[in-house]
Amino acid sequence: MDKPRPCGCKGRRTCLICEKSHGLENKVFDLSEENGTFVYCPMCNCAWPGWNLNDWQVHPNHSGVPLSYPGIYIGLDFLSEEEEQRLIKNIDNLPWDLSQSGRRKQNFGPKCNFKKRRLRLGDFRGFPKFSQFVQEKFKDVPVLKGFQTIEQCSLEYNPDRGASIDPHIDDCWIWGERIVTVNLLSDSMLTMTYNKKLDKYNLNCIDNYPAVLDSNGKINVDGECYKLTSCDNNQPIVRIPMPNRSLLVMYGPARYYWEHQVLREDIACRRVCLAYREFTPPYLPSGEKFEEGRPILNKASEFLTNYN
């Protein structure tokens, strides 16, 4: 089933629609719990033994031994209910494209070939005007100091289609250190599993990139590059809550050492998220690839009222 199917899936990826119509089986990824499972608490900035979404909500009455888990920032109630409703109304007024594993998407950004490391403007014209206020709110978040969005993607997860996303690390050749998600409509979880494939995701690029943030989430001023060390296979599963209307930023260790996925079981009702990406240093001013990045950066400063 390598060819795209009417539901948007192809290859090993499936949803409830093609599993039923084509007799396919949902691929189940190994989630061994022998090293334990932990749930990150945004109030403690560490993870505690558990699995369920509401396990962090017992704060401060956690039990067990906590796990240090640097590289996560969660801003609760980042958006108001009115802002959320206004966003969803405008998002749904734009056409959705089918995506894999039961998702739908709306993408605003450049065209990227991750294998060949090629970048082009494509039909990117800027971002919808109605979403500009979200990027403006980033300026009030210390871990997002200097963040310039060059891709904004709306992703819809619907339980009726069995929506999910496979474990992965966002590409490291073009997408910068901070991976940003704004969660809408319902609570969900990210499931983090330790990455054993250092030869994937263009991870070899990051040795040349100065770290944006230190382990405490402060802006890094010493200019040192992030260095990946050998894998440690004895790592637990860490679950990151994504409460409705919250902001999630992954950076540093959580960004580079851990694959993240959204399990089908963690989509109880419709969820929409806005995903934001920044450039890696070579494509920013003073970088050796800046001339390639310049037209995209210029378009990324524009917000269009009529985006159809």
From TrEMBL:
InterPro entries: AlkB-like_sf, ALKBH4. One of its GO terms (biological process) is demethylation. One of its GO terms (molecular function) is oxidoreductase activity. SUPFAM superfamilies: Clavaminate synthase-like. Its cofactor is Fe(2+). PANTHER family: ALPHA-KETOGLUTARATE-DEPENDENT DIOXYGENASE ALKB HOMOLOG 4, OXYGENASE-RELATED. This is Uncharacterized protein.
